[in-house]
């Protein structure tokens, strides 16, 4: 079999460079097309927001769907109060909601240790706001909590079993703590023998998890009734 000569090698190299150039050009054209589509969609979204401003502000379900539309194209109507998005007033709405969430979480922390049911929080916020203003949804509360993360890691959403709880203490609930809280969820309490039997954990592990839960006030020791 004859080996390729210099001209053959140069021809193959030139073909490779040409194909790579075509590939880059096609990729650039595709990206430019996507950018144009995205710009068109954002403009349409802003027009939609202006047209349906009142519905977005007053209807929590409509507002939730609007946020999902924004998320699909990477638009955050809460990121700035400048430009067209300021017409909606959503930034001020969610920052005000965030203040109310903080106030309620602080007021109930002694009762719940810094974990409050999301549904209960929505109900308390709604009562505080009164019936004269638009209703708020769970999605609204979660948006407000997302904005609170800029102040630190204290606030977040925790899922324990089927329950959704808002955390207002610095420490996140880890997997072991979540498992133990879920075990205690049914009766509202749990004993060390029950933990050993249900989870097959050794004493040191149980002690470490309980210590952290007690430290963060997510659990308490029931000493029983006095004699």
Summarize this structure briefly:
This protein is mainly alpha-helical and 227 residues long. The chain is built from nine helices and three strands.
What does this structure look like?
This protein is mainly alpha-helical and 227 residues long. It has nine helices and three strands, in the order ααααβααββααα. It has a three-stranded antiparallel beta sheet with strand order 1-3-2, with helices on both faces. β2 and β3 form a beta hairpin. The longest helix has 46 residues. It is flat. The model has no long low-confidence stretch (mean pLDDT 77).
Q: What is the topology?
A:
Layout: H1 6-51, H2 53-58, H3 60-72, H4 90-112, E1 115-117, H5 118-129, H6 138-148, E2 155-160, E3 163-168, H7 175-185, H8 192-199, H9 203-215
Helix pairs in contact: 4-5, 4-6
Q: Shape from CA axes?
A: flat
**Tally of DSSP helical segments:** 9
- In whole angstroms, the N-to-C terminal distance is 102 Å
Mean pLDDT: 77
Strand content: 5-15%
Spans of 5+ residues with little confidence (pLDDT < 50)? none
Structural class: mainly alpha
Q: How many E strands?
A: 3
Helix content: 55-70%
Based on CA atoms alone, the radius of gyration comes out at 28 Å
Biggest β-sheet strands, sense, barrel: 3 strands, antiparallel
Report strand order across the widest sheet: 1-3-2
Order of helices and strands: HHHHEHHEEHHH
Q: Which features characterize this protein?
A:
3-stranded antiparallel sheet, 3 strands, 227 residues, mainly alpha
